[in-house]
Every structure is written in C-alpha cells, then in structure tokens.
Design a protein that fits this description.
about 25% helix, five-stranded mixed barrel, OB fold (Dihydrolipoamide Acetyltransferase, E2P)
C-alpha cells in the first residue's frame, strides 16, 4: 500500500534558512513542497524517508538563495491493483460507494462492482445488498455512512491537473463579450482529481465488515450447538 519512490529535485534554500544545517533545511523544504501532494504516476506523498545524496550548492546571479540538486526517497501511498484495503464509507450516491481512509478520500466503488444484487435506497441515501436467504426471501444489508468496509483495488486513475495554458476563448468572447463572461466560463470548468482509486467488493469476504462478523458468529454458534448435540448422543450411548 505504501511504497518508496526515489526522486530528484533542485531544492531552493532561502537566505533566512542559512543558519540551519543544509540537510535539515533541505528536509524541511522537501516536506513543505511535497507532503500531502499527488505526483503524476507516482502517488500521494506522505513523508520523507531519507536523503540519498546532496550535490554542491550554487547561488544564481540575482538570487541570494542557494540551489542544491538532491536525490531522496519519499514514502508514497500507491496501493497495487489487487490489494485488499479496509476503509470507512464516506457517503453513497447513484454512482456508487465513496470510501475514505482518513488521509485519502478519492476512492470509489462503482455500483457495478458492489455485491449482487444491490439497489440504491433514495430515502436512506445508501446502497443495499439484497442478500438471498435459503427460503428464497431477501435480507437487506445496508452500506451506511461510517461503516468499516473492506474492498479490493481494481484500478487507479491519474489526471494532469496543472494548468497548461489560458482557457480557450469561446465564441461569445470572439464576438466582443465582456471579460467577466470569460472568467465565469473558466471557473465553471470541472475540477479534476489528480489521483483516484477504483475498488470492488463483489466477491466473498469483501464489503461491510459487520456482514461477515455476524456470519462468523452465527457459524460459531451452529458449531457449538452441533458439539452439544454430539455430546448428548455420546452420553446416551454410554448409559445404554
């Protein structure tokens, strides 16, 4: 779930940090720059592990800060496809079940990857697994907000969110529309999520933990009853 990524960067240390040791100043600057940030095709940066190497620092003309090329290793959150993770249900929508890990919220279990058959309850705003019983009836198992849920990572999606240039002007702006209309058009663009995880629970043992905990308790109770029944039969045979 967590991996070590080896990265290289040119770290700028401002003059007011020159009183610190170079290693300490570089560590602080790297964490300030990367902690809780998503790097494209790398993952969510968590914390600096260690610094592998520091090259000689240079001061550029017109800039009083020092610039140092640094090779370092960073702890990154990027679970492999197929990894089983336990999180909590953040909310449900018709799109599916949204899950949080506390430090990472962009996890979606699409409705097609839920236990089958499932339906979306509009009143409760929750997905419901219609668990089939032996007599042909169905028992509703709700996926409520805050419930611990175990899921398997099925896919990861990275998106470039850095601006690549000014927004394209629309036809209205070409016809002399005001600049405020162009600004409104730019702000109405969809906000992209840099890193998303797609999960699935459509297999035995996955889903809301309380489902399987209850089943385990029922199985244990059945085993105990069978043992008691066997003991009674054994005692009866001995008396005969």
């Amino acid at each position: 779930m967590f991996v070590l990524a080896e990265l290289k960067d040119n770290v700028r240390i401002a003059p007011d940090q020159f009183n610190l040791k170079l290693v300490d100043a570089v560590r602080d600057e790297i964490d300030r720059k990367l902690a809780n940030k998503v790097l494209l095709n790398v993952g969510l940066c968590i914390a600096l592990k260690d610094i592998v190497s520091l090259k000689d620092s240079i001061i550029l003309p017109g800039d009083g800060a020092s610039h140092t090329e640094v090779l370092f290793r960073y702890v990154v959150f990027r679970p492999m496809v197929g990894t089983v993770i336990t999180g909590k249900i953040r909310n449900c929508s018709r799109e599916g079940v949204h899950v949080t890990l506390g430090f990472f919220d962009d996890i979606l279990i699409p409705h097609a990857a839920l236990q089958h058959p499932s339906r979306f309850d509009e009143a409760e705003q929750a997905w419901v697994w219609e668990y089939p019983l032996e007599d042909g009836a169905k028992h509703d198992l709700f996926m409520d907000v805050g419930e611990p849920i175990k899921f398997r990572v099925s896919r990861e999606i990275f998106e470039e969110t850095s601006p690549i240039g000014p927004p394209k002007a629309e036809a209205q702006t070409q016809q002399g529309a005001s600049s405020s209309a162009a600004v409104a058009s730019a702000t109405s663009q969809e906000v992209k999520t840099p890193y998303r995880i797609i999960g699935a629970i459509n297999e035995s043992g996955l889903g809301v933990l309380s489902w399987w905990d209850q089943q385990g308790k029922d199985d244990e109770q059945d085993d105990e009853e069978d043992e008691e029944y066997d003991d009674e039969d054994g005692e009866g045979a001995c008396e005969e």
